[in-house]
Amino acid sequence: TQGLQKRRQLAVDAGMLFNYHQPRDVAMWMKDTLISLDMIFIQGNGRILRIAERTEPLSDRIIPSGGPVRAVLEIPGGTAKKLGIAPGDRVGHPIFSGK
């Protein structure tokens, strides 16, 4: 439930993966999060459904997944664009079925 809250920095190659075990609609927020993040919403088959880029630090605004997802990957703000990550891309990790 704490996630990356209260961190003052995050290494460029670091992040946090939230595994919800079963696909479901989720909502995130930036309360008490001091750094901007990209939130990558990932379906059960590993496909990226949506990316919330450069989220606003300390915001109480709800950031919805936009549909059922298995996981959310939080990475430093701006990283998705810098690496060319986009909705429809596939994330490789053992929790995803790859279908």
Based on secondary structure, the structural category is: mainly beta
Characterize the overall form: globular
Strand order of the largest sheet: 1-6-3-4
Q: Sheet with the most strands?
A: 4 strands, antiparallel
SS summary, helix count? 1
Terminal CA distance: 29 Å
Mean pLDDT: 91
Percent strand equals: 25-35%
Order of helices and strands: EEEEEEH
The level of helicity is under 10%
What does this molecule look like?
This protein is 5% helix and 32% strand. The chain is mainly beta and 99 residues long. A four-stranded antiparallel β-sheet has the order 1-6-3-4, with no helix packed on it. Strands 2-5 form a two-stranded antiparallel sheet. A hairpin with a 5-residue loop joins β3 and β4 (48-52). The longest helix has 5 residues, at 79-83. The mean pLDDT is 91.
